[in-house]
User: Fold this.
Amino acid sequence: MAEPAAGVLRTVGQIVDQLAHGGPEHGQPAVAWGVVLDGELVLSGGAGALRVTPDGAPAGPEPDADSVFRIASMTKSFTATALLVLRDAGALGLDDPVARHVPELAGLRPPTADSPALTLRHLLTMSGGLPTDDPWGDRMQALDLDAFGDLLRGGLTFAWAPGTAFEYSNLGYAILGRAIANVTGEDYAAAMRRLVLDPLGLTSTVYRAEEVDPARLATGYRRSPRVPTAVPPPGGGPERMWQELPFDGYGAFAPMGGLFSSVRDLARWVAGFADAFPPRDDAEGGHPLSRASRREMQQQHRVVPPRVVAPAVDEPAALRGGGYGYGLVAEQDPRWGLLVSHSGGYPGFGSHMRWHPDSGIGAVVLASSTYAPSAPAGQRLVTALLEAGRAALVEATGGRPAGPQPATVRPTVRPSAPAPGTPWPATLAAMETVEKLLVTWDDAAVAGLVAENVDLDDPLPVRRDALAAAAALAGPGGFVRDTAAPPEHESPAHALWWLRGDRGRVRLEVRLTPHPEPLVQTLTVAPVADLGPALRAAVDAVAAQTAAEAPGWPASLAVAGGLDPVAAARQLRVAAAFAGPCRVGPVLASDGVRTALVRLVGERACVELGVDVDRAGAVRRLQLGHEEQGFAATD
Assistant:
């Protein structure tokens, strides 16, 4: 095999290995993956075991292309496909008011008097105006259908006027599933089997764990909670063990994230979408949805807020953005053109599928831990395969012609919030309550503040201890709002803000549910200790070098084993050229002793400095990266 083809196999192996065995507390119990080319699964494999002991030892078979994992929000593309099958058959219209097919929403009050009626298209494209609800929605999977009806009849709270902004909503897809059931007169899962799964022969794709041979089923896991402390113990403390998570049953939220599937079935699913390009005169084939409708699903129907990301200053920055289609994300990459994908994150699992229609190259990555980082692995896989070229992949897997060249990118814009353009009163009230809890824990206040998922995601005693550990940074002077970092609000249902104490800062974040009386579904408390002497010396020395005539490795800093000072000095020179002379800005993350992330504020731009030191103060890691820009998009 020629070197380019061998290089493809080597790179794929490295990417999978990084996900499966990425260092202490960063690996996965099980990973299954596959590469798609021209409609076929041409490479696949697995790592780890479908079941493991608490310390990670194999207790089951190694995963492969036929192993079945929960795929979480990748389910949305299946629900969207069924809806378009019904649209194409004339059973419904995408611009129908939702209440026509889900009568429990007949009395739904819009956010403003001039808001349009909520439509199926709004929910399909994540522009229904409902607030992001990942943590809460993930825990609603098995909600009883009658209870779901009661929830809908009770009313919902909007973050935006329908049709004006992207915001990811699991509830919206649960409502679409209700519409599918009502229009067909069948249970949602039965309708999906008839309309989509059976016509495509997806026999490993099911909604209930008991439908899967236990020998092929991946168990989901999470790491045991870390015991919070203001200063980490030597060596980082005891190893966090794998905890098995039970499967949530089939219920009202199955349309947004309830499916189980395999790499082999998902390769067929990916192939069906990639095959919709280019438009042509050929016969339609056996897919239940026309090529035109499959292409329609892969268009940018609602802009996704863009971000500019780069892992280090000596690597090129990349634009992450694009738009949400129908159950799929479509992005226009400056280099490769259209890329289509969707991820799935869920307690016990993380998944990603991604493809490049112009080349027919795609990838599927499934893993078995809570919100496993399958998406970065899938992105790296597809990018590496595109960089290697179709010819190398063809040689590595067996013979096909080359494909067309990629297209270009167009800009996207984020809309503004509806009047008055401010956070919900409930969001502001939640901020005040969280600040009080940081000083004094109050069980009654917590009970009235948080949704049911909060205790399930991390037990309340663990959260109480985390708040107490963060409170240690207050010192005698207590906490005050950090005026240098005003609160940020991605939507009216969200807040991120900082408090300043005598010994450091605390980063706080809340995200609220869409209930009539919104509750906190995300509560993040991140203590950021002031820099200790060794970290401060390292940060100051690096900042000083950005103003040097010939920036290089600071002579005052010792180097620990594993750090390449030549590579670090190269990053420092690039950072100095990019940002200009820098001063030390705010500390973004720090334990105060061994590790820190600090913003360096330059004359022309800002960069972020990540640094780790050992017990003797020698630098063992140093990375200078660009700031991430834009709003995060939720999967």
